[in-house]
Specification:
single chain, about 280 residues
């Protein structure tokens, strides 16, 4: 067991420092899995050409890729459960020893908040890595058709990042208010007073609604930017390039892949904003 030191700050950075080996293994497996997925369309296309010509070589390579992907994807998930479970135990022990004399409500809430740091590494980081690779691949493929298409996609990614950066402080404040209310839950429940419990849950609802409204506004603007990019790329390919129907289909497909993947990146930034507030809270005396 790799316990945290009594005066060590609990954060994503301290998790990296103490469990860098485990994190390196699972991230390497994640990147391998993503790379294998990215090769599937390419090998499928080559396999079709080979099979139509009566050859089997590329099809056998495709089957080998499927087998490798199965092993890597399954192995990563088996390893992840154990690696991140170890981190949760260490985080829980540290939270308990530092909050042994704190009210149960506060201690319970902060233990759950500490687990969110590990949850981020296990659940959201692999999704972010996959999305980042897919964004790069989509831009690279669009660049082979025309640089305007790649600039359209890359420019939209910059715009949506700026949009989220502008709203980051508001996300931080609303997460802080929600977390502060969450710390009061056990006290409200142990009071056995219906009015207190009702007031607590109504307060939680109010903070959740305010956070959700902000998310809806920000992601509405982000989707507007990304869907505008998709529409522009379709228009540009169909009217400004001497493109075949297959080329138009490819551009739209990769542009849509970019939309799906790019949306995941601001979500990760939002999670990091929440974790920044959680880190401050769980390290408070």
């Amino acid at each position: 067991m790799s316990d945290f030191q009594p005066d060590e700050r609990l954060s994503l950075g301290s998790l990296f420092k103490r469990f860098y080996g485990k994190i390196a293994v699972t991230w390497t497996l994640t990147l391998c899995e993503t790379a294998l997925y990215a090769l599937i369309p390419l090998l499928i296309g080559w396999s079709i050409d080979d099979l139509l010509a009566g050859r089997w070589e590329m099809f056998l390579w495709l089957l080998a890729l499927f087998a490798t992907l199965l092993i890597v994807a399954t192995g990563r998930r088996v390893y992840d459960t154990r690696a991140y479970g170890t981190m949760r135990v260490a985080m829980g022990r540290a939270q308990f020893t530092r909050r042994a004399d704190a009210p149960v409500s506060t201690a319970n809430a902060r233990v759950l908040m500490g687990r969110e740091l590990v949850d981020f590494l296990e659940q959201e980081t692999p999704a972010a890595m996959t999305a980042f690779v897919e964004v790069i691949v989509a831009v690279a493929i669009l660049l082979t058709f025309h640089n305007v298409l790649a600039l359209s996609a890359g420019g939209s990614a910059i715009v949506l990042t700026v949009i989220f950066a502008i709203s980051a402080r508001a996300f931080f404040n609303r997460n802080a208010a929600l977390n502060a209310q969450s710390e009061k839950q056990v006290d409200a429940l142990t009071s056995r007073n219906l009015r207190s419990v009702t007031h607590h849950f109504r307060s939680l609802r109010r903070h959740e609604v305010r956070l959700s409204d902000l998310e809806s506004l920000v992601y509405g603007v982000i989707f507007l930017v990304l869907l505008s990019m998709l529409a522009f790329n379709l228009w540009f390919t169909a009217t400004q390039l001497n493109a075949s129907p297959g080329d138009i289909f490819a551009v739209v497909t990769y542009s849509f892949t970019f939309v799906e993947s790019a949306v995941a990146l601001p979500i990760v930034l939002q999670s990091l904003t929440r974790l920044t507030e959680l880190t401050r809270r769980i390290n408070d005396s």
